[in-house]
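Message: A physicist's question: would you kindly supply an amino acid chain plus fold tokens?
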Amino acid sequence: MARMVLPEGESLSVRELVRLYTSEGDAGIFRVTATTPVYPGNMEVTLAHGICILNDTRIKGSGYIEGTFGSVIADIISHQEGNTFAVGYFADGETVRIKYDNDTLLDLLKQACQKAKKQRLTVDQSSATWILGSESIPDHPTAEGRFARNLGTVSMNVDDDNLCTRLVVEHTNWETGEKTYTYYDADTISEYGVVEKPWSVPYGATEEDITAYANEFLEMWKEPSVSIDIDASDLYDLTGQSIDRLKIGDMLRCCMPDYKTTVNCRMRTVTHPDVYGNPLKRRITYSNSPIDTSGLLVELKRQNESNGRRIGGAASSAEAARWGINLTHERLEELDQYTKATFNAVGIELNAQKATVGIHATNITTLFEDVERVAQITGDVSVQLDAQNRTINLKADQKAVDDLTNEVTTLGTDVSVGVDGLRATIQQNDKTLSELNATIAGLEHWVTDGADNVSELVNTVRGLESIVSAAGGQISTLTNTADGLTSIVNGQGEQLATFKTRIDEITSEVKGANGSITSLSVYVDEISGVVKAAGGKIGSLVVSADEISGKITDQTKAFSQLLAKIDEISANVQAANGDIGKITVQSNEIAQTIVSADKRITSQLKLIAGVIELQTKADGTAVSLRLNALDNMITAQAGTIANISGDTKSIGETLSTITGSTIWQNRESITGVVGNMSVGADGKIYIKDGSGLMITKGSASYGVYDSNSLTAGIIVNKINGGTATIKAERINLEGYVTADKLSTEIANIMTQFSGKLSTGELEVTKGPFSFQGYNIVRRSKAVMTSLPTFTTATVTLANGNQIKVVTGWADAPSNHRSTLFYLGDE
């Protein structure tokens, strides 16, 4: 709901659709529900969200609608006149059950939304057809706040009148009249004790209906009802949650030590209490009660109409305890002996038994269709509502007035008035007000005294939109807590000796016109402009900066010291006219180049994700690099690596063929094609599983096919200890080599290492390798078996292990035949 005042000359018609904009942007399409002329020629317009169109259509008859939340909404929308609404995406398959009895579509929509616990309704009005959908709401608190009674803008209400931890169900045998009792317990009974409420089973209810209703009722009232109203600024101070991140339905864990109560509440409403004076101010309501006051009135009105149609006009009264009125899921007449309810089509008279209801209505002439706000009046109050003149006549010892548009006068001597909104002047023409005690939520005019000084003004001002001044004299003391200061606080004739304030936002300059400000202590959340001293220097500036998007410069002097923890530097850090003495940086990632023109950069790097490029020093000497771990490839692109030494723990990936260099380890040389290998903590070389290595020592002679000779090497997988000495052997080949012949030669070579094999110092394993000429070349089994001719044989090693040998031949490019073999199993 929204209210606005149109200036003279502007007008709107009832039921006209308009698009409403707030300080946050487009608020959606609303319908004009009422227009009221106000002085001096303006028009006050009442708006309701466009979804109120559903209030124009009813579902005929009575019954239940049950299914997923989305299917129930679709069923309701299917009864609309026209095609204004359509059903979109629904986030959850939650099941709800609602009851209808010639109800409007809007009432049924509200009833379904109250039953849905895991999702909230969304309305998309961006197209000609408005789309109804839902989005999931969190089932756990997203923040926690500790609320105290003396907190600035908080208003709390904790009420246990409706608390129920045990529902006693009375079953009636409608044939014999015999009554039996069962009960259902809530899961909070251990915390709050046994608090019983009775309920009589209506005629025709099934066991499934009884269980469903009992569980639903206990879920509603198993905790005391808690309602909290708070300004968004105070909520941010308590929880750190910005209003921009909060949505209707979000859950907050509310700790209230004054009441010894901790409950989870959901956000119910967000209001703009002062659109003109403070458009950014927000008032937030949290509650753990599933039904607010307006929802209760809507449900009572629906039941009234339903029962009036059913009974047909007999005048009667209804007496109910307050908890009984809130049983909105069944008709009031179903409360059995606890509520005597008969209705006529004109109205309903309620006599509440508990004072906490707060109102005793002797006569309600008319109940408006659109009830959006309820005034809670304490004490004994007689209320007369006149529908035609729209006036409220009050008779009470004390008055709580929500809206005062005219002066309040009294003939008596004592006046006690609580004013929520003051739009007129409180004045005394012939006397001095000896005492004025008032809590003023919004002050839009002056508080003045025409003849004398105000000796003392103690005031808590939420929003100060005008000038506090003393025209003929001096304000000796002004003690003020200002949440929002949008105008000037000044002393026209004299200086302010002391001015202490906490300012949340400064939109203009803070200056001393005729003198200096000796001390200014400010806690600044955000600086969008320049902090400077025009005529002097800033003695000390201590800033905790979460983000610096521009430059920090000193135009006249060098920074003697700059201590900062910077999460991200997107530009240069520089001193224009001086040196930066020291920069201490703990860098998780350096995405760009660190350049030092004439200085040395000393850094202990934990992780290097890219390439380390070492250049020759300015004096021509080489650079050194100490590495604790290498997980990637070491390459020498333009030259050779002369020496890798030191405490190198692991080389995790493949070392490419190192051209023109030798890796020295324990005075043994390793040449050729190198697979996966590592150097252990003991300084020895280890070959990883699944890789191959040809190790030779000394010179080896090798021949060609014509001389029937071939140099053989041993393919090894591991060297677990010591330094293995592997000799280059010759395998004399006569004619074409068969698998059997090659197997015999390999077995003879393997015999020399039987001792090593038995001790585990040298392990020969299978792997797809081949001899081709004198080079070791990897060959897969598929390649071998595709050769024109191949044979297989089994080689039994000295340690009893057996390996498969596959041989074959093919014409080499030089027209020499090469013998290939494969060590491996099938």
